[in-house]
Amino acid sequence: MVKLIKSKGIAHHSYFIEVSGRAVVVDPRRDVDVYLHLAESSEMDITHIFETHRNEDYVIGSLELACATGAEIFHGKNLDFAYGTPVSDRDKFQWGSIELEVMDTPGHTTESISLVLRDLSVSKDAQMVFTGDVIFAGETGRVDLYGPDKSQKMAGLLYDSIFNGILPLGDQVILCPAHGAGSVCGADIREQDYTTIGYERNTNPQLQCTSKEEFIKMKVAEELYTPPYFKKMEFYNQNGAPIAGRIPYFKPIPPKILKEKINNGACILDVRKPTSFAGAHIPGSLNIWRDGVPAFAGWFLNYDDPIIVVDDQIQGLDEVRQALFRLGFDNIYGYLEGGFPSWYLHAGQINSIKLWSVHQLKQKLESLKEKGEGLTENRKKFKETSEEDFFLLDVRKIDDRRKDYIQGSHHIYVGDLPQRIQEVPHDIPVVVYCDSGYKSTTACSYLKKNGYTKLSTVLGSMTAWKKASYPVVKA
User: Fold this and answer.
1) Measured between alpha carbons, how far is 81 from 235 in angstroms, rounded to an integer?
2) CA distance 127 to 91
3) Where are the extended beta strands (E) located within 152-283?
4) Which CDD domains does the record associate with it (predicted)?
5) How far apart are alpha carbons 65 and 71 in whole angstroms?
6) What is the mean pLDDT of residues 365-390?
7) φ/ψ of residue 223, rounded to 5
8) ∠18-19-21 over CA atoms, to 5°?
9) For 3-51, how does the pLDDT look when each residue is reduced to its tens digit (9 = 90+)?
10) Which residues contact 97 (CB under 8 A, 6 or more apart)?
11) Of 65, 168, 175, nearest to 114 (Cα)?
């Protein structure tokens, strides 16, 4: 029996395989209690842990799980791991009638492997294949992790792994990838937990390429974002992350103590929704809404400063703590006791950010147009602009920007702001929009934290703009 364990936010898939009275885990997450509970409830011993590759987007839980169970860790031989046992192409593991065969499938990374499962009591044909980040539902793995000069080579390896390795296993084989929709490890993964080789052969756009050259060209042309925390994950997942034993204790921090922590360099992570944060927040805090923490914490947080979480309510913060732990943020310090209300009830200083509706944005743009001015297109000429001018910043993904945008806006993806903040002017107001108003408020919070004062976030952003039938520029 195979059980899928899904981890929200990072869209991670791991697998718990019951084989002849024992258990095998593929690509475990760092908080390993879920596997331990499954093993205990089934009265099974976890004996084998397989890593399909060195993961980039989360801390692998192999060492945590091995420490708790004594299981042996296995991974591809084409990378010098500091732990575990390397395996080679065609190595086989058998428990009763169940066989797992290792298949070298480089392309996403050089050491990527897939695991082919067979039930020999039924047939020697493959039944399932655990593909890691080589192929997903509707997508194939990214090939840019070693830099642009290596992308063409990696794309060629990926083609060979898929077309000469995985697809020949047969259309009936169930594909079990390491990620689902929303993962940064693929450009456009489908919302689908399981798929089959046959279904992907017929529906996956990237498998419709008629030649290896066409596939390589398509993969090299992909533009995917690489969060800075990937480097930390790569280091941890090759050399071994610290074994925590459990998710760090989340201690309540009274407002008085929080003020001291702020003065000593603590990072205040406000996980409230845009309207709440914009209305009032602790000065210097960073806003990443609760569900956005897994996707965006790695762009803005560091691994040194203590992280203290702020919310309106203190219930449900376990999800935030869990997400940070999976990304390797062991510097989680605690949360504001009593939530944000306790801050202002103790006379704590507050800041705010202006909230614009799309109608206000439209009126401002129309006003400038009527005066024959329009938004400033060239940032070098800001000093020549009128008092009503402002810098309209689009922080959506580049793929969305290329579909359409609001006339006169400038584009910087929200995650790229720390590296490109010098492109945002200080001397005129900055108005930020995204898809719906969440990422724009994150962007505003980061800009405000870095000294910008004239900021507005557009509620509803591009979604509301289109609902109002306001004009867009088709790219």
Assistant:
1) 10
2) 17
3) 174-177, 195-196, 251-253, 267-270
4) POD-like_MBL-fold (cd07724), RHOD (cd00158)
5) 7
6) 63
7) -120, 105
8) 90
9) 999 998 889 999 999 998 899 999 999 999 999 999 999 999 999 999 9
10) 20, 119, 120, 121, 122
11) 175
User: What DSSP assignment string belongs to 358-421?
Assistant: HHHHHHHHHHHHHTT----S-GGGGGGS-TT--EEEE-S-HHHHTTEE-TT-EE--GGGHHHHG
Over residues 99-121, the pLDDT tens digits come to 999 999 999 999 999 999 999 99
Contact between 134 and 105 under an 8 Å Cβ cutoff? The reply is: yes
The pLDDT tens digits for 441-465 are 999 999 999 999 999 999 999 999 9
Query: Tokens in use for 30?
Result: 């760092």
Domain 251-345, CATH: 3.40.250.10
* CATH C-level class of 354-474: alpha beta
Domain 2-239 has CATH 3.40.630.30: no
- Distances from the Cα of 3 to the Cα of 26, 444, 459, angstroms: 10, 41, 40
For the segment 382-397, the average pLDDT, to the nearest whole number, is 76
- Tokens at 197, concatenated: 């080789």
Predicted TM-score (pTM) of this structure: 0.91
d(CA 268, CA 310): 7
CATH 3.60.15.10 maps onto the chain at 2-239
**What phi and psi values does residue 470 have, to the nearest 5 degrees?**
-80, 155
Better-predicted residue by pLDDT, 376 or 256: 256
Mean pLDDT to the nearest integer, 362-385: 65
Residue 245 CB neighbour total at 10 angstroms:
10
